[in-house]
Design goal:
Blueprint: E1 3-7, E2 11-14, H1 21-27, E3 46-51, H2 61-68, E4 77-79, E5 90-94
Parallel strand pairs: 1-5
Antiparallel strand pairs: 1-2, 3-4, 3-5
Length: 98
């Protein structure tokens, strides 16, 4: 099973392929904002993917549009609610804390 490393806490958890990063982060007991309940409407679950970006699902139009409206977005930015895990290890950096 692939592993998810969550920064800055350093927590490492096993994850299921096909699960959203948001669901995996919450299941790991980490706090992450998600005001719109995973609909890509608020951008509060913006994270940086440090490693394993290629194994995640492709960014769709709705996510791209929301990311375009967020300050501090980089090429490693994703919305945790929209990025689905693949079969390889991923490292993310949480930016927003609840």
């Amino acid at each position: 099973m692939p592993m998810l490393t969550i920064q800055p806490s350093g927590k490492i958890v096993e994850v299921e392929a096909g699960k959203s990063l948001l669901a995996a982060i919450l299941a790991a007991g980490e706090s992450i904002a998600h005001k719109c309940e995973g609909k890509a409407e608020c951008g509060s679950c913006h994270i940086y993917v440090k490693e394993g970006r290629k194994t995640l699902s492709k960014t769709q139009r709705l996510e791209n549009e929301k990311l375009d409206s967020i300050v501090g977005v980089s090429s490693s930015s994703r919305l945790a609610c929209q990025a689905l895990l693949g079969t390889e290890n991923v490292t993310v950096e949480l930016l927003s804390f609840v």
